[in-house]
Specification:
Alpha-Beta Plaits; single chain; transmembrane helix; 266 residues; 6-stranded antiparallel β-sheet; 61% helix; alpha+beta
Length: 266
């Protein structure tokens, strides 16, 4: 939500409170017997104002806080993306590396999806996968055709995918349906949103953004009360405003007494 829109909505809620206060000031005219009505009206108007004006602003608080955290944080955020192997991975990494606010960019894993295979074939793949490509450091093999790999730093993931795909087809007639490469991008917190939008224009899916800023926002979300509580609070605030209007004369007299008491002590 735009900052000016948020300010306008807060101002409109304040206007509602002033309206409640104005109605309460009329109690000498409408009579004390309508006291409960004024209190009820204050609660209802406050709650409605909270639902329509304060609740949308309240929803946007984590995003506002996120912008502040991004400006004050020195630690990089980590953007994780899945890159289709239909595009040139080397070019993609090079282009991202050249973007403003980007630190280190590296592949962090590979997902290969193939035809289903038997448990015997699964066992054979697990036994020989490191021989097929010695640059594969770790792997997970599932009979539903999902193979998850991690290769040595600096090794081209596309070469690992091609080597393994060719071997699977040659030895078992297993076709590779598609494959993705996980890419890990270190980014300046203030540039995360721009980078995520720019990166998404490619055949790329941003899977997560992690780091100190995201942790702070998550902690804030957990601490924030629910929207229903905010609406109820606004209703109570409206009720208190109504009571303040009803008893404004008594309040002013009491404040004057306190003021006079302090003057005497001086």
């Amino acid at each position: 939500m735009d900052t000016w829109v948020s300010i306008i909505m807060i101002v409109l809620f304040i206007v509602l409170l002033i309206f409640i206060f104005s109605i309460a000031l009329l109690t000498p005219i409408i009579g004390k017997k309508n006291l409960l009505f004024v209190i009820f009206l204050g609660f209802m108007i406050g709650a409605v104002g909270g639902a329509f004006f304060i609740s949308p602003v309240y929803e946007d608080v984590p995003q506002m806080a996120r912008g502040l955290y991004q400006l004050t944080s020195d630690s990089p955020e980590i953007i994780m993306v899945d890159v289709s192997t239909n595009i040139d991975l080397d070019r993609f990494i090079s282009d991202v590396q050249a973007m403003e606010g980007v630190g280190n960019v590296e592949s962090s894993g590979i997902i290969i999806r193939t035809d289903n295979f038997t448990q015997e074939r699964q066992k054979m793949i697990e036994e020989r996968i490191a021989i097929v490509d010695p640059n594969i450091e770790s792997y997970e093999v599932y009979t539903n055709g999902t193979i998850i790999l991690n290769v040595k730093k600096g090794h081209n993931p596309i070469k690992a995918i091609k080597t393994l795909s060719d071997w699977l087809m040659l030895t078992g007639g297993i076709s590779t349906r598609y494959s993705n490469v996980h890419v890990r991008i270190e980014a300046d917190p203030s540039q995360v949103d721009n980078l995520a939008n720019e990166i998404s224009k490619e055949e790329v899916v941003v899977t997560s953004v992690k780091g100190p800023v995201q942790e702070q926002v998550s902690n804030l979300r957990e601490m924030m009360p629910g929207q229903l509580n905010v609406i109820l609070f606004c209703g109570i605030l409206g009720m208190i405003t109504g009571l303040a209007g009803i008893f404004i004369d008594n309040i002013l007299i009491y404040l004057q007494k306190i003021k006079d008491k302090f003057r005497k002590e001086e």
